Amino acid sequence: MDVILLERIAKLGQMGETVKVKDGFARNYLLPQGKALRANEGNKKRFEAERATLEARNLERKGEAQTVADVLGGKTFLVVRSAGETGQLYGSVAARDIIEVLSAEGFNIGRNQVDLNTPIKTIGLHSVTLHLHSEVEIEIQLNVARSAEEAERQAKGESLTSADAIYGVDEDALRPEDFFDPEADQDGDDE
Fold it and tell me: What is the 3-state composition of the chain as percent helix, strand, coil, each rounded to the nearest 5?
């Protein structure tokens, strides 16, 4: 199906372009969301008549998104979760959790604006991309930790999942002789 784009859509085209898309994508997403019109003579005339209004509205949205991006860009947000000694979370941090953290800080971000391919399942510093507008994209840091104190240590670059952090032992100083005695089983008995 040929459609006229009413806004820039990543990997598809710019505002005003006529592009060919699959029928289901047009019927289920582009047309109901008001992102495109069917490409026919009536809609082409309608688009040209409303072009200035659409461009002004798009520019206004982009400006608002850029303002939020300037405030949010490069910020680190703390997410406290229960985790095992190896750093594996009991559960995960998904897009809805990120939305909650951002809304607690006063930012109104939609779930569809968070680009998180798979949920976060380990403690540590994680980068998350936010698509605030089709032309405005930023990256924020999530500091996932078991407590605020651990988050501070992580932010300084300390690893909380190494043997040193877990057992209080320097990983580089560990030797096999520290764990078993090679002289103990000389007779070949497995007992």
Answer: 40, 25, 35
95-100: which pairs have CB atoms within 8 A and are 24 or more residues apart?
98/128, 98/142
* 166 pLDDT above the threshold of 60: no
Would you state the pLDDT for residue 176?
A: 58
Distance CA 125, CA 66 (A): 24
Q: How confident is the model at residue 107 (pLDDT cuts 50, 70, 90)?
A: confident
10 Å CB burial of residue 9 (0-12, 13-18, 19+) is: buried
Whether pTM exceeds 0.85: no
C-beta separation of 75 from 140 below 8 A: yes
Check: CB of residue 54 under 8 Å from CB of residue 86: no
Choices 1.20.120.530, 3.40.5.10, 3.40.50.2300, 1.10.10.60: CATH for 2-67 = 3.40.5.10
Q: How confident is the model at residue 93, as a pLDDT? A: 92
| Dist CA 111 CA 83 (whole Å) | 25
Give the single-character DSSP code of 94. Answer: -
* 189 pLDDT more than 60: no
Ordered by start, the domain boundaries in the chain are: 2-67, 73-167
Question: Does domain 73-167 sit in CATH 3.30.1330.60?
Answer: no
